[in-house]
Amino acid sequence: MEIQRAAVIGHPIGHTMSPFIHERLYALSGVPACYQALDVPDLAAALPALRGLDCFNITIPHKNAILPFLDGVDPAAKEFGSVNTVRVRDGKLYGYTTDGPGCRKALQGCGLSLAGPLLILGNGGAARAIAFEAARAQRDFHITIAHRPGAYDKAMALAEELAAFARRRGDRGFLVTITSYEELELDRETRFSLLLNATSVGMYPKTGESPVTEGVVRRCAAVFDAVYNPGRTQLLELARACGIKAVGGMAMLVYQAEAAHEIWYGAAFSPRDIADLCRDAEAELEKRFGGERP
After folding, report:
1. What is the CATH T-level fold of the domain 100-250, as seen in this structure?
2. Looking at residue 2, what DSSP letter applies?
3. pLDDT in tens, 142-190
4. DSSP codes, 95-107
5. pLDDT tens column, 244-290
6. Is 63 among the catalytic positions?
7. CATH architecture of 4-98+251-292
8. Cross-strand bridge partners of residue 223
């Protein structure tokens, strides 16, 4: 059996746990592979090398930027406007997204769901995938999208796309709103069933930051942070200090990786293997980076 050439691309990439997770999944499948972490500051310049791989994953900041370079896009990824998984066939690139299902499965494993009024922080690839997954999961959804200064147009575009999706499906009671972080902090009344952080705020090495303050966190019944390094982000610490259920991003990373292997070569894994991998990845993360925390 030929060795599968695989990678994760992003910039920066030093924080990634993807090689650890994907190497384990390849081993469980009995598929020989070489999985690398590639720092790619210039996506266009890296395309010739990427076309020489068999498959690759995509992280910040290329999940949207990859779209114009793809030879084919899965309908869900096209609708979401985000790609985090690419299969290469005869030098051609075919894009998929596994972020949304990965988030949903991670939440389900902790007794949470994408139902109810949601607050999504961010407007990038992960935020888009999660927002559309939430919209697909329930009729008449209620989603609030928070945007940073200068990102109003991007947030509004996402809100309009979600609304168009709901109208095509025949929903009538859906609600999509956008808010700035300043407005969000000033609001004292609006409450959410779940806050989902899909930004990189708080990610290694800038671990002492939170995208929102305690005042916002207290208005949420639960908090999910897609950041997985560190395992205990400042946002999660705020939630736990408030007695609010808090879920980190490692399980999402593992579940979206599992889905990628299904796409690449039809792999299937047992729930026990995935649960073991989530636990071991958390332990490996602490081993690698725990001593570097401020």
Report:
1. Rossmann fold (3.40.50)
2. P
3. 999 999 999 999 999 999 999 999 999 999 899 999 999 999 999 999 9
4. EE--HHHHHHHHH
5. 999 999 999 999 999 999 999 999 999 999 999 999 999 999 998 87
6. yes
7. 3-Layer(aba) Sandwich (3.40)
8. 195, 246
